[in-house]
Amino acid sequence: MSKIFDIIGAGIGGLTTAIALERKGIKTRIFEQAEEIKQVGAGIILANNAMQVYDKLGLRNIIEENGNPISSMNITKKNLKPLSKIDLSYFEQKHNTKNIAIHRGILQQILIKELKTTKIYLNHKLTKIEKNGNDYDLKFSNGEKIKSVHVIGADGLNSTVRETIFPNTSIRNANQICWRGVTDYELPKKYGNELNEAWGKTERFGFVQIAENKVYWYALKAFKEDKNEFSVKDLNTYFKDYNTTIKGLVKATKKEHINTAEISDLKPTNIWYKENVCLIGDSAHATTPNMGQGACQAIEDAYVLSECLDKYNINKAFLEYQKIRLPKAHQVVKASWMVGKMAHFSNPILIGLRNLMLQVTPSSVNKRQNEQIFQLAKI
Ligand SMILES: Cc1cc2nc3c(=O)[nH]c(=O)nc-3n(C[C@H](O)[C@H](O)[C@H](O)COP(=O)(O)OP(=O)(O)OC[C@H]3O[C@@H](n4cnc5c(N)ncnc54)[C@H](O)[C@@H]3O)c2cc1C
């Protein structure tokens, strides 16, 4: 296929798609609204499914070298006593890949460096797509107009591409505020290769090592009406009853380096493409972060879409891509939404029941759920 694919958005989804298409000999251009690609002050966990894709793209070693392997994911009480533990070693062996926690900025740089023929056009915020015969006119806020034949919307939750082709989708606010930070910190050795997420009452706190003496943490709190009910200034108060490691991480992070965001997702939609325009990643299926799968699902999209475009003509490729990816992506969105609700129960009886359920759920049930998520589609 000799025509160029224009990707809107240079996030993890857009960059990985460009790399995957380059590997198939398909040319791409990326248009990104930002004036420069800034390092986000947060980490990310690339679960086994994402790492299998990066293995196929030849990026596994460099990501492993720059990140930290995670062999267990734990939900705990405030004091870090485990309620449930998912041992990832079974999946590591089965798929011969690890789960890697890494700084987002470092991952971004690895992906950007890997682009060989793709140019990233910064300061190109897409404002409109207009059909013009068989092609599209892409209009940007800097006044430029570019002709395009194939468009891939990788422009995230508030996607302009999606708004243009499917104006009736809806974004759901989870009524949770999220703080994220990265700090230099020497974790107790036992936490070195684990993700721990402590659940309390309407709030929770997760942390994971991303490099030697570097820790990424995130904290969430449910609000009733307005996110301004809570402030980053009071973070230590919200977690004052938590384990000393958690309090230490908050204390060690400069407040001005903490990233604050509201949590939302996209209500599942059943169509991801129209004619020559197709959505991937958060623009198609943004999820709440409760399963740590948003970017992993975008990475799977990149892999499946590139395989389909390599095998089929454009119409069949988009259809097959959607058929393969949509059920799994929606499963993640739905499960993640539910986990988010459960994690923020405020009623003490419900909290007790939830904790008991987490403790008694057999590890085989957890394993089965992850089995589906970590399995890549066969194409
Ligand atoms: C608190 C939190 C923690 C998370 N943790 C994890 C995790 O551990 N593991 C995981 O897999 N996922 C995680 N996620 C989810 C993950 O961050 C997203 O799913 C992922 O970043 C989506 O990638 P994307 O490329 O589709 O979209 P985005 O990352 O949103 O990228 C979209 C890009 O498009 C650009 N853009 C937007 N509009 C335009 C426009 N009009 N014109 C041009 N460019 C545009 C943006 O500037 C951006 O660069 C987390 C999310 C949150 C909020």
Write up this protein.
It is a single chain. The protein has 379 residues and is an alpha/beta fold. The chain has a single domain (5-171, 265-374), classed as FAD/NAD(P)-binding domain, CATH 3.50.50. 37% of the residues lie in helices and 28% in strands. The chain has 13 helices and 19 strands. It has helices spanning 12-23, 48-56, 60-66, 89-95, 104-114, 160-165, 235-238, 244-252, 282-285, 294-311, 314-343, 348-360, 363-374; strands spanning 5-8, 28-31, 43-46, 68-70, 72-76, 82-87, 99-103, 119-121, 126-132, 135-140, 145-148, 150-153, 171-184, 194-199, 203-211, 214-222, 259-266, 273-274, 277-279. The strands form four sheets. It has a seven-stranded mixed β-sheet, with helices on both faces. A six-stranded mixed β-sheet has the order 8-2-1-12-19-18. The model has no long low-confidence stretch (mean pLDDT 93). The protein binds flavin-adenine dinucleotide. The site of flavin-adenine dinucleotide (FAD) has 33 residues, from helix 1, strand 3, strand 13 and helix 10. Residues 8-14, 31-34, 44-45, 124-126, 154-156, 160, 178, 180, 218, 261, 281-282, 289, 292-296, 298 line the site of flavin-adenine dinucleotide (FAD).
